[in-house]
Amino acid sequence: MARSILLLSSLAVLSSTILAASNFPDCTSGPLANNSVCDTSLDTLSRAKALVSILTTAEKINATISSSPGVPRLGLPAYEWWSEGLHGVAKSPGVTFNSDSDSNFSYATSFPQPITLGATFDDELVYAVASVVSTEARAFSNAGQAGLDFWTPNINPFRDPRWGRGQETPGEDPIHLSNYVKSLIAGLEGAGDVDGSEGGKYKKLVATCKHFAGYDIESWNGNYRYQFDASISMQDMVEYYLPSFQTCARDAKVGAFMCSYNAVNGVPTCADSWLLNDVLRDHWNWTGGNDDGFWVTSDCDAIQNVFFPHRWAPTREAAAAAALRAGTDLNCGTYYSRHLQSAYDQSLVDEADLDTAVMRLYGSLVKLGYFDSTDSQPYRSLGWDSVNTPRAQQLAYTAAVEGAVLLKNNNTLPLNLEGKTVAVLGDWAAATTQMQGNYYGQAPYLHSPLYAVQQLLGNDSVFYSAGPGFGDPTTNDWDAIWEATDSADIVLYFGGVDGSVESEGSDRTSIAWTGMQLDVIGEIALLGKPMVVVQMGGGQLDSSPIVNNPGIGALLWAGYPGQDGGFAILDILTGKQAPAGRLPITQYPAAYIASVPMTDMALRPDTSRGFPGRTYRWFDGDPVFAFGFGLHYTSFTADLSLAGSASSFNISSLTSDCTEEYLDLCPFASVPVSVTNTGDATSDYSALLFLKGQFGPEPYPLKTLVSYGRAHNITSLTTTEITLNLTLGSLSRVDESGNRVLYPGSYSLVLDVDPGLARLDFTLTGEAAILDNWPASPVDRVGSPSDEVPEGYFVGGYGSVNNAGDQLPLD
Amino acid sequence: MARSILLLSSLAVLSSTILAASNFPDCTSGPLANNSVCDTSLDTLSRAKALVSILTTAEKINATISSSPGVPRLGLPAYEWWSEGLHGVAKSPGVTFNSDSDSNFSYATSFPQPITLGATFDDELVYAVASVVSTEARAFSNAGQAGLDFWTPNINPFRDPRWGRGQETPGEDPIHLSNYVKSLIAGLEGAGDVDGSEGGKYKKLVATCKHFAGYDIESWNGNYRYQFDASISMQDMVEYYLPSFQTCARDAKVGAFMCSYNAVNGVPTCADSWLLNDVLRDHWNWTGGNDDGFWVTSDCDAIQNVFFPHRWAPTREAAAAAALRAGTDLNCGTYYSRHLQSAYDQSLVDEADLDTAVMRLYGSLVKLGYFDSTDSQPYRSLGWDSVNTPRAQQLAYTAAVEGAVLLKNNNTLPLNLEGKTVAVLGDWAAATTQMQGNYYGQAPYLHSPLYAVQQLLGNDSVFYSAGPGFGDPTTNDWDAIWEATDSADIVLYFGGVDGSVESEGSDRTSIAWTGMQLDVIGEIALLGKPMVVVQMGGGQLDSSPIVNNPGIGALLWAGYPGQDGGFAILDILTGKQAPAGRLPITQYPAAYIASVPMTDMALRPDTSRGFPGRTYRWFDGDPVFAFGFGLHYTSFTADLSLAGSASSFNISSLTSDCTEEYLDLCPFASVPVSVTNTGDATSDYSALLFLKGQFGPEPYPLKTLVSYGRAHNITSLTTTEITLNLTLGSLSRVDESGNRVLYPGSYSLVLDVDPGLARLDFTLTGEAAILDNWPASPVDRVGSPSDEVPEGYFVGGYGSVNNAGDQLPLD
């Protein structure tokens, strides 16, 4: 397939270049040619200002909606701001796939979902994947089939195991998210581009960090994302909910943000000037004080939600005005187009408010080369030959392999399938688009597990049955299941959950295995045949019944593995590849959720209300599998040391020696990790380094991930070194006001999940030092979760009911 | 359309008779001809016994599964027991509709859902509808396209407004349900058949009262119907959860019952010998002590659920055995077919257990004439000409008209649409299958509201827009909405909820208006045009924002109105028909559910746990609209009297005077109600008679519906008399042990909802008398809801988690 693509692609480059012409403004001979926006010698801000200066008020309002009509009189084309690319160029208003599968731009590489990519703990891989996504996105854009900005990544932490969109994130840990997203944005926006299409001064794409902030509920027990008011303490906010966004803004300088549906401590985020201006633009210094091309879009209809159902603004015009003035520059939805003119007429917004938003938006397009000639821009020559290259295909496969996590293995794996017959069962066995999760595009192929096994063994040796489904008990599938299992030497069961159970708009109500799967699995396990269960889906399931069942030899989790998922899984099962992924989320026992209202945003356990806490840092019970857990086909030993070999550090020396703009980024130490493969199989090893100790404000977390890295292909009986870098921020804690502080105390570094492969202790001495002074909210917005969640149970209702359960009047 | 059907039908009778031959056993020349089952001179039990006596054990086991293969060696045909007919012959394993819409048996009359039929408070209408359903079902059966038993009605009370299947029931009140179901079963099973096809000694159909018992949760917050253990006090059980089933068994002698997915007080109902034998068969004397054709089926896979996820039985075989021995004769699912032989081999069941079940099942078919010659049975000659007759079409229309409930009218209705332009908006405007709810068949036509308005005014005067949807906020529909409203003189909005919000398997999480409907409605109401909102769907929505909005002139609720819903609604809006339906359920404020876990089965309020109580009898808050509420286009006055004019009654006289087998059925009094139409419009009037008073055990209900009846077409300034009959049971209360008792005290009868149109007081004197001694459960099974629902919040989890949240081992 790769060869025929390459043959076709030389034609494709030509045609896409021609097509692209009409998608970009004519800066040569059009009405804009003499406007400074077309003057490539000027800075971004000047160019954007020049364009804004010639727009009418109505044209500016049109420019603030995501399906912008452009300005025909100026030859400024319509522009669709809403393109998606969560794990590959994805279907969305801004992206078009040709429907004829033989034609160019009919597909794009479909990588694993972020939850699987997160399980790789391999940020170089994340960068490589993102680079392919942006290359393919540019190729689509050049063909007039995609925009230049993409509304990805979803970088909210996967706080509650029920969250339907947790699959879109790399996991539950804020440090992991921060490192991941920094690599991801570099790959998407083209910083240090490695694929030969260096953009020079141009941005490759604009990425959009979403959903800012505190968004991680779809619909739980009558609490809908459009209305939910998340009550979050400043400590939890800075420590848990915001680090990934701080990295996006302050450190990765991502091009765009998206404010979210929910409110935080009483204010809908799209109308929250404190969040969008004080924190994002000022404290994090996102834009360096300029409005030169960094913008905030609302989530779709989130500005409507400011009025309804949040009822935060008294009128529809006031909602639109509040959002614009708070710094929401773009509206996905209808409220700016419908109500901003009226808000303007009522003096709720003024010309300067509109100018700022439009400058930011068109500034962004300036940076993307939108107004510049094609021949000056290597990105503009990317064509169909850059899509789904052999390297991209290999990368999609590798990402799926690296992201698979081995949870149980009673000497069953790797399997020798030679000459064997195999039953391939379960509702994931023949998965196609299931493997893509959500926000996906047309894939070049979707190799199911069944297909992979059939390719390996031939159809005659493979017996397939779907069922038993993820929902209702099955009535009709048993016979097919027995027929398949009776015929086979070995049983492979592919199940778990999929998009029918966890999805946008729909959180789970159970974290146990769904439907009748456990009954089917349990009865098959009585047959005494070698049996492997592969757990699919993004949210974890309590797999202890499978772990505890001696009739089941192995359990592998593979998430949403993308276009080549079947081969990636099979190659691990047969030992062609070795598993080395790690769980990026805690696998809680099924009963966990009974004592945890999804609406309770707190992280720390609170016995007074029977709240066990959240994430591996705070959960005070026993997980089924811990964050970071993952077995191998071999065994490892490791040594840990601090470069420089000191074991005590003075805080004032550490801070005064630092020359970084932000103290939390100051280097603390490099930690060389020596890893020895003491077994037979060649294998990757993901080094996860945790910090433990009782320092800073009580209560203390059980441990905290501070750094990680992945070594590849460590052969038997060899040793590899992985260097993990720590900053002062790595050692810091957050106080109740949200300040990040370095505290004196005894610290321990532990490699790998408990009990750990190696450990290293050191102390910090002297006075505590603030690394980051958190900007207080203008009003007292430190929430009290226990006030909001009486007796562990809380229903906000929807539509006309506010969080206190009161009926509100309807205008 | 009716004429062409009649022309086609003479052919149809011939062909269906021929087809039918192979669906029935050959008692003339087949292997069974000499078996007594074919001897029409014998009683049912003898005939069924004779058949069972010649079956092998394996054949008997085959006979206990719903897709029974029959016994080919005996010429006993395969029989599919699972046919559906909730509100018309419905698609199901036992029912086939021809796909060519021009061919015979390609459709059946589709009546309103029971919730709409319940709102008519017209049991003669219920009987007439059920008679049409059974006639059409017999016609389908004769053509080989349906079974003879139908798994309807769903007669669980609509306890919680969130219940996804509440639409399948006539409402929340047990007396209403009991009267309704008695009429319904008479119509379905052919008692006193009025449509000219008198069955003589034969049953017309077998109906199936389901789901026995305590079933009214689909999926709430991790509590799934397959696993839920309903904790119900004996008082609530007898007073609320069981009366409709008692009527089915004891008074209507329905042919079949279905046990449910859930457990009650620790025992899955399909394995509950107390429920199925002590209560159903013995105490209610369902079968008169005989096993001559009354059977219990499991809900589909409910026997599997006894093992998993209930984990009530230790093995799969034990689950199957427990169900069979408890009196579950038929298994929809695989557990009897897969595990009963093994249970037999382990002596967990014996031959007699199997014989009993199979006798009951085939006895039922004997009563249906299954083994008897066609020519002796009028029902067997029913053909396609009996389906969707003009009378059936009229009845479907009438039922929809009678079931519509007017909730608000600021002199807006009836509308004069002559010469007007009308905007028809909302996601119900162009409803087709939406109008059928669930468990529906192919309808002959589905006249949407939009279609009806277009027929009345012509397409050019009607402006349509769908949106805004029931889920996510809309991004794209606003423009179409404005275009429609800008063009129109009058706005009709059809919205609410539908099967995408409330359905089998899916309870609601909010009882407010969903999606962005209130924002859209509210903005349209600002236009100042005459505006009517029609609220559709079975579960009530808190419509107070619509009630309180002066820009909205009227609100009508129409439920799921069936095949002619559009015309039924439009004819009410224009005054061609007058509204006289009454709400068969309470319309709670949206915040109600915040303090009511769905899993809390209690009815009575309990301030200690912040529980406001359930149903109009107990709810201690203010409803938005009360049970029984409904406006008219006219006004009524009424007088109430007790026939005989006494005002004091001695309890021992009342009971000793009675000759009824069951004391609660003893007549107490007739209550003639004189109703005068004091307004201009001709209108029906539904007389709802409530009992009030402080007698019997505390706490006292606010009031109790004791009788009702509907008078038709009362013309202006005329008076009609409706006679309502009361029994001793009408006056009784239930004590904590479940005994039904007549107590001394002061009683009041009040006509209509508060404050009532008329009132009448009387007293009972003497000692309290037990009308019904309730059979105690062999173990202490009086549940304590507050134990099961700690702090108002409860999650059972699913799959491998029991209700205490413990992880159970997997076999």
From TrEMBL, chains A, B:
Pathway recorded for this protein: Glycan degradation; xylan degradation
Keyword Hydrolase: yes
Enzyme Commission designation: 3.2.1.37
One Gene Ontology MF term: xylan 1,4-beta-xylosidase activity
InterPro entries reported in the protein's UniProt record: BXL, Fn3-like, GH, Glyco_hydro_3_C, Glyco_hydro_3_C_sf, Glyco_hydro_3_N, Glyco_hydro_3_N_sf, Ig-like_fold
Residues annotated as transmembrane: none
Residues covered by the Fibronectin type III-like domain: 685-755
Extent of the signal sequence: 1-20
Keyword Ribosomal protein: no
Cross-referenced SMART domains: Fn3_like
GO terms, biological process: arabinan catabolic process; xylan catabolic process
Catalytic reactions of this protein: Hydrolysis of (1->4)-beta-D-xylans, to remove successive D-xylose residues from the non-reducing termini
Keywords: Carbohydrate metabolism, Glycoprotein, Glycosidase, Hydrolase, Polysaccharide degradation, Signal, Xylan degradation
PANTHER family reported for this sequence: BETA-D-XYLOSIDASE 5-RELATED, SUGAR HYDROLASE-RELATED
Assigned protein family: Belongs to the glycosyl hydrolase 3 family.
Record's protein name: xylan 1,4-beta-xylosidase
Species the sequence originates in: Cytospora chrysosperma
